[in-house]
């Protein structure tokens, strides 16, 4: 194991250098390659509420942890994070500093591409592990790192992205199906499987989160009985369908208040709440502070971050 990790170090260092060049200040950064983003963190942080799409998160430097349903999933340069569903979670930075920032990438999974590749390859031997959840930790492999290295290199050759990026992205999906997380991914691609049906239900919830939710009707929509649907939904997401809808409503209300300057009552009604007081109670339970107080704190953090970024841009490191 030690030898394998040591073999990865030069590749990890090169990935970190590339990511650092494109993410020179703390934040999250999209790239010219669809589905690929970079992140940079310069200090440890307590868990922050987030939504994680079906994706691979690869850390080139530093260490992070994702909390889902009270369970922590730690990942670093030797372990990648895989999420096979849209999951409400809390993201924590464990290891980072201005001198040694936490650097990494997010790579969005194309479920259709994954299904095509899964149909063309033999499934791995059955492993009796917790593939029931929509999140897991996998071992980073050298072929996986080499594929990501080639993908990132295309950022310096923009004219080649349209032609070569889809080929490398396809290879990355294949490498994932060869990894120790293959069983988790295959559950989502199996059209007749429970994971696929729960993913379809989540897609519906994301579009219709403002509407009243009748679990029996949603279960019927994805061709499952209500008890079976409820059981598998909780198993994969660690929350009930109603809790999932509530999370969608509250995070969207937070965005409306923070980015669109809406007051708490307006945001509450817009996302489907009928009672501002109920909205305030549930918002406080999720985010740890009443809506107005939370938004004031977030705006203060944003101003502080912007000032640090401006200072860093004006005084770049030699």
From TrEMBL:
Ranges of Basic and acidic residues composition bias in the record: 303-318
Domain HTH araC/xylS-type: start-end pairs: 199-297
InterPro entries (alphabetical): Homeodomain-like_sf, HTH_AraC, Tscrpt_reg_HTH_AraC_N
Region of interest (Disordered), residue spans: 297-318
Superkingdom, taxonomy of origin: Bacteria
Keyword RNA-binding: no
Keywords from the named record: Transcription, Transcription regulation
Key word Metal-binding present: no
PANTHER family the record matches: ARAC-FAMILY TRANSCRIPTIONAL REGULATOR, TRANSCRIPTIONAL REGULATORY PROTEIN
Name assigned to this protein: AraC family transcriptional regulator N-terminal domain-containing protein
Organism field: Pseudomonas retamae
Lineage: Bacteria, Pseudomonadati, Pseudomonadota, Gammaproteobacteria, Pseudomonadales
